Amino acid sequence: MSDIFREVDEDLRRDRAEHLFKKYGGAMIAAVVLIVAGTGGYSFWRHWQAQKKEEQTAALVTAIAQSAQGPEKGVEALAAFAGSANPSLAAIAQFNAAALMIRQGKPAEAATVYDGIAGNGSVPAEYRDLATLLAVMQRTDGGDPAQLTAKLQPLTADGSPWRFTARELTAVLAVRAGDTEKARTLFKQLADDQQAPSGVRSRAADLASLYGKG
After folding, report:
1. pLDDT for the residue numbered 190
2. Would you state the pLDDT for residue 2?
3. C-beta of residue 141 within 8 angstroms of C-beta of residue 111
4. Which of 152, 189, 149, 191 is nearest to 173 (CA)?
5. 8-34: burial string, b at 16+ Cβ within 10 Å, e else
6. Which residues are within 8 A (CB) of 1 and not within 5 positions of it... i.e. 6 or more apart?
7. Lowest mean pLDDT among 33-37, 84-88, 184-188, 201-205
8. How far is CA 106 from CA 53, 100, 204, in A?
9. Helices (H) and strands (E) in the chain, counts
10. Is it the case that residue 20 has pLDDT exceeding 50?
């Protein structure tokens, strides 16, 4: 008798399973297909991204090499590359293009390129900060000291990788503004900072001494 009840129970379970599969089977299959496709798609996407990055890096090297034919050729090739590259590689191309402009005696044009990098939110923060620093550097002689100092202020913080150069530029701008006391203080702080590069400390010590004589 128990065998009969077991068979009936198994038939009921089978009927229920068939009913559920007919009702939800399509969605279940679709979900499995999506999982498999998603896993395979993600692997393909990673491979495609790596391959694309390699191709773009090679294209960047080729663009940089164009500068051997003259700065104008190099700037043109780098600008063309930057127009279609991912943000990080495009920024590297723009840094190189700006350097070529400086070699051509075009600091204003270079500063404008740096401004573009600094204002691009898709570019890593370290690149944006470096671009800000270099833009200020190109404008140190003729730009407004107060405005340039304000741009440098965030870069002088202890956590900034560019803090020593930013502090040195801030001191130079203080000299331009006629505030030699501030300049001397900043130069002395740099000269005494053992974490600062030796070249920065040496220059700062000489300038602190120079402006301390006033």
Report:
1. 94
2. 42
3. no
4. 149
5. eeeeeeeeeeeeeeeeeeeeeeeeeee
6. none
7. 33-37
8. 31, 9, 28
9. 9, 0
10. no
